[in-house]
Amino acid sequence: MSVLSIRDLHAKAGDTQILNGINLTVRSGEVHAVMGPNGAGKSTLSAAIMGKTGYTITRGGVTLDDVDIASLPTWKRALAGLHLVMQYPTEIPGVGIDELLNEALAERGSNQDQLEERIANEAARIGLDEALIHRAVNVDFSGGEKKRNETLQLAMLDPRIVVLDELDSGLDIDALRDCARRVEDLTNERKLGVLVITHYSRIFSDLKPNFVHILAKGRIVASGGPELADQLERDGYDAFTG
Amino acid sequence: MSALSEFVLPTAEQELWRYSRIDELDLGSFTPGSFTTTVSADGSIVSRDSRLALGDVSVETPDVFEQMHVQQTSSGPIRDNHVRIGTARGQVVAEPVLVTHHIDESGLMCFPSLEIDAAENSELTVVERFTSSGDPHSLLVPMVRIHAAQSARISYVSINELGRRCWLLGYQRAIGERDSNIATSTISLGGDYSRLRAGVRLAGQGASARQVALYFADGTQMHDFRTLQDHAAPRTRSDLLFKGAVKDQAKSVYTGLIKIRENADKSEAFQTNRNLTLSSGAWAESVPNLEIETNDVKCSHASTVGPVDDEQRFYLESRGIRPEVAERLVVFGFFADVINRLPSAAQPDALRNKVGKKLLGDNGVQV
Q1: pLDDT digits (tens, 9 = 90+) for B265-319
Q2: Which domain holds residue A43?
């Protein structure tokens, strides 16, 4: 059982204060959705949790099973069991997906036996063309291929908690369904804890949230069950941010 | 032998020597001397005579060091360091020919001289390697003259692994006749100041050239490249890809010119130079140029200078990869397209190791 605990998180993007006191607790096997309009602080939340350069935590903190995540460099946050699926996955010329996974698993001291085969199986499961495994990460990938690749890496690296930053942007409906279902399966098979950051509720048909939180102006302004997403769908963000 | 002191050295004020370290050169501290040249092939294709004059392979006005090279290699004992590799019509040389120049003394001025003369429809690969031992402070002024007759195919690899006190002022002069194919690969890792002037002239219809270079300067090294893709016949094609990294206080310069002459219609020319600056104290300059005298051509050039991309770094680190491994992956990835274009004779795996050592800060200083 793992717990990601975000307490009174204040953060800046550059010099601009964006997050003004976020409190969230994500446990193994739970799916939490953080929904918010543009400019609410969704991307800053994921960047601050993962420690991206240019984002500073100014107050409060983040812990994963009592490890003070916020004090660690990005790579150690990942080794502690945290993972970020990116909204715009970066292209890395000349570095193969298999090469990346090889290094990332080596850092974890993981068993590398039959790595190629395991990657191929995972690729088949997520519907990523096996030929892409040896190709440079995200270079010339379609939107769907990028998100399938993100999901493949998530499954291979087997973190305890994942932050999905707008998994539903820039890909077609079939790819979204495949990715969302794979994450849903991971919550059942491996008790993965999930923080879904999203603007829209369409991802929820395949990845069912246990909790929904509404983010506005850098604060959680409402929390509830899945019915909160329905209410949002009906009334729009204005009802919460007004 | 006439005195080298008669030559007037250029200054960094001149365009061809802009950004260079030529002003630091004290020619008086070097005297012409001998060094070791070994060749792997036998007398069937290798000889000591010379049949290619500079004027046969280049129409550019020779600069002072080319003149010096020609003067010093036209007579005297230094001819021992001249190698001619010539093929017969239709001959395919299966094994790469290895030419190694080795220097172990300070205060020398050396003129390694190589000519590669491929007869009609013949094919060969030549690897020329520059090495040293004992960390000598010497000056090398090598020149390779390359002639590809009709439909000949030449792959030439130059590897600079000189010690860190050597100066290298090198020249590659190549000419390709009708439907010939010239590929040059330049690997520059060594030297204090290492400069290369490389020109390819596509003189016959349908001739093509591919030029690649990989350079990595660290410490206080400087690598300096001046290239010319000279299209002098219709339907000729050239493709240049030079990629380099600079680290610590190292510097690099690339200036390149694509010249499409009036009669070279339906030609294609590409030129790409990319540079990674791995330390804040490192510096790289890149200046691409086009000179096109006819309309019906396809040309492109691209040039970049910059550090490792923060987004790429963050992406890899977010997967749990430590910063130094992330940097190594990005740098190897950056060089991947150059390394993939190298012939196997250039030993790409060994090269990868050497690049890895430079990244780790093992600067290979000989003691």
Answers
A1: 999 999 999 999 999 999 999 999 999 999 999 999 999 999 999 999 999 999 9
A2: 3-92+158-241
Asked if the structure places residue B45 within a domain, the reply is yes
The interface predicted TM-score (ipTM) is 0.97
Q: Dihedral of CA A95/A100/A103/A107: which sign? A: positive
Contact A83, A162 (CB under 8 A): yes
Over residues B98-125, the pLDDT tens digits come to: 999 999 999 999 999 999 999 999 999 9
How many interface pairs between A and B have CB atoms less than 8 angstroms apart? 81
Using CA atoms, how far residue B316 sits from A43, A196, B319, in Å, is: 18, 21, 5
In a domain, A117, yes or no: no
Which pLDDT does position B246 carry in this prediction? 98
What would the pLDDT profile of A77-97 be if each residue is shown by its tens digit? 999 999 999 999 999 999 999
A193 has which bridge partners?
A161
Please answer yes or no on whether A93 and B315 come within 8 Å at the CB atom: no
CATH code for the domain in which residue A186 is found = 3.40.50.300
Tell me, yes or no, whether B92 lies in a domain: yes
Asked, for residue A177, whether it belongs to a domain, the answer is: yes
The pLDDT mean for chain B works out to 94
In a domain, B16, yes or no: yes
Range of the domain at B119: 4-308
- Our count of domains for chain A comes to 1
Q: Which residues of chain A have pLDDT under 70?
A: 242
Q: How far away is chain A from the Cα of B332, in angstroms, using its nearest Cα?
A: 7
Query: Is residue A213 a part of any domain in this protein?
Result: yes
Alpha-carbon torsion B326, B331, B334, B336, what sign? negative
pLDDT of amino acid B365: 45
Q: Which residues of B lie closer than 8 Å to A, measured between beta carbons?
A: 309-312, 314-323, 325-326, 329-330, 332-337
CA Rg value for chain A:
17
Q: Are A154 and A185 in contact (CB under 8 A)?
A: no
Tokens of A109: 């001291």
A83: part of which helix (H) or strand (E)?
strand A82-85
Residues of A in contact with B316 (CB under 8 A): 92, 95, 100, 103
Residue A180 lies in a domain: yes
Q: How many domains does chain B have?
A: 1
Whether B132 maps to a domain, the answer reads yes
